[in-house]
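Batch manifest, entry 17 of 40.
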Amino acid sequence: NEDFHRARSLTKVAARYSSSDLTATLDLARRLASGQSCDRRTLASSRYMRRFRLRLIGALWPLVADGPWTPGEVSSFTAIPRGWSFTPGTLETADPRKLLARLRSQLNRAGAKDADGFLIAHLHGEFEPQSRIYQLHVHGIAAGGMIAAIDRLRTTPSYTSDGLVRGRMHISRKPLKDIPYPLGYPFKSYWPCRRIGMVGREGLIKRQRGHHRIPEPYHSQVLLWLDRWSVSDLTLLMNLRVGRDGFVASPPKNVHQFEGNGE
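Output type: structure tokens
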């Protein structure tokens, strides 16, 4: 039903607004309405993302539950680096591969290159309706020494608070609970709309709670942007690889392992 709703919105946007992406808009609407979105693996499909999220949870669950890390050594986090804000006119220039490569470099400089544990993060976005800003960020799961590397980013210039974002790095200090919910949380199938502005008589600046649908034509722009990329384009893995039976945690590249020789 959600995919059908998105298809109808895309069709209306194509008819109402002049767009250079008219062909792409109508093609995506057709695929979402016909159910071909799952076959094409488009991130614009709620149905495809649900099926993917279920598979990902099944692959992560054994690693988190049965791995060498205790519950207190696995945390969820959200990172909002500076420079990840885009307007409707600049969203098309946002390349998730370059953004995540930059994040990887920042983490390596903070000690992730030598850390044990693992990290998996996925790029997500929100839309602020008053400023008309798409705020991109990542949600992720980290274990072992990767948590300390993430924590070190908090004091770097790219993650200090400013007038736009109060806290650019959030790390859960509590053990993961209610599994499997937190394992699928980073891989949401939609971008929400949340207002940031003054509330009450005191005029405090607050971020709206709850999830609201992004208004058109901005929501359709998000769908078209997502349709350009794959899951791997929006996902960062560190000390983690995809094996035949799921995820496999791997040691840091500069840590030598000796197998079968008694050392």
